[in-house]
Amino acid sequence: MSKECKEELVSIIIPVYNTPKQFLEECLESIRKQRYKNIEVIIVDDGSKHETASYLDTLKEKNIVIAHKNRGGELALREIMECGVQKETTFALWMRMT
């Protein structure tokens, strides 16, 4: 008897503030290359200037959620985790871009 293996949802939370586009592209490309595919990406933009915010607005993938906050800091990120992460999430990974 074979059992269907259900892949648990993994949420990757990426806080950004004026992060260079190149770093964001590299980060997202790395996530896209993962063999594990049941992933949601939540990018929390903490009031970035035009270039970063504009780039994020071009991302249209169904598993990427963009949350623009205005200098909310860690509190804004916690709100996103409480409200934005899907209920089926088994594991949430918080990445810091520096």
Write the layout of secondary structure elements.
Layout: E1 9-16, H1 21-32, E2 39-46, H2 50-58, E3 64-69, H3 73-83, E4 89-94
Parallel strand pairs: 1-2, 1-4, 2-3
What structural class results from the helix and strand content?
A: alpha/beta
Classify the beta-strand content into a percent band. Answer: 25-35%
The radius of gyration over CA amounts to 14 Å
> How much helix is in the residues?
25-40%
CATH superfamily: Spore Coat Polysaccharide Biosynthesis Protein SpsA, Chain A
Distance between the amino and carboxyl termini = 48 Å
Largest β sheet strand count, sense and barrel closure: 4 strands, parallel
In the CATH hierarchy, the third-tier topology is known as Spore Coat Polysaccharide Biosynthesis Protein SpsA, Chain A
The global form is: globular
Q: What do the pLDDT scores average to?
A: 78
Say how many strands there are: 4
Strands in their spatial order, largest beta sheet: 3-2-1-4
CATH top level?
Alpha Beta
Q: Architecture, CATH level 2?
A: Alpha-Beta Complex
**Poorly predicted parts:** none
What's the tally of helices?
3
Order of helices and strands: EHEHEHE
Question: Mind explaining what this structure looks like?
Answer:
The protein has 98 residues and is of the alpha/beta class. The protein has one domain: Spore Coat Polysaccharide Biosynthesis Protein SpsA, Chain A. It has helices at residues 21-32, 50-58, 73-83, and strands at 9-16, 39-46, 64-69, 89-94. A 4-stranded parallel β-sheet has the order 3-2-1-4, with helices on both faces. The radius of gyration is 14 Å and the shape is globular.
